[in-house]
Design goal:
- This protein is α/β, with parallel strands linked by helices.
- The protein has 6 helices and 7 strands, in the order H-H-E-H-E-E-H-E-E-E-H-H-E.
- Helix 4 links the parallel strand 3 and strand 4.
- It starts with 5 loop residues before the first helix and ends with a strand.
- The relative contact order is 0.19.
């Protein structure tokens, strides 16, 4: 089991308090990029009704069998991680709960945060390109 140092969690939570939510179209663009990078192009598991229309616009299909999933709550993060999925979410503070990747807005720009332990535990490895641009926790 991987442990995150307490100071990283505190720093991350502090940054999350400053982060705003991204619009659905921006979230889906990043979800599409991450799904493709993880070897799951064109599909993602997503229960978020607000994103379903945007998924279609980006050429994504909502597929519960996808190894990549979008989570809308901390409880969903935990359940999806337990199912072996790479969990993408919009809240940095959900990474210690099982999220693999958080897509957040900081300073008016989208940022990607990676939880390397949860990525390694998922059934979907990321490409080196994503690992290079994401901020690791």
């Amino acid at each position: 089991m991987h442990r995150i140092p307490a100071f990283l969690i505190c720093c991350s939570l502090g940054m999350a308090a400053m982060a705003a939510d991204l619009s659905a179209d921006v979230q889906v663009k990043f979800i599409a990029l991450l799904a493709k990078s993880a070897g799951s192009p064109g599909k993602v598991a997503c229960k978020d009704g607000n994103l379903h229309g945007e998924l279609g616009k980006q050429g994504l299909v909502n597929d519960p069998t996808s190894k990549v999933a979008w989570a809308t709550s901390e409880a969903e993060v935990k359940a999806l991680k337990a199912a072996g999925k790479m969990v993408i979410c919009g809240h940095l503070e959900w990474l210690p709960a099982g999220g693999s990747i958080a897509i957040v807005e900081e300073g008016g720009k989208p940022q990607i945060y990676l939880h390397m332990g949860n990525i390694a535990a998922s059934s979907a490895p990321l490409s080196d390109n994503i690992l290079k641009i994401g901020k690791r926790l």
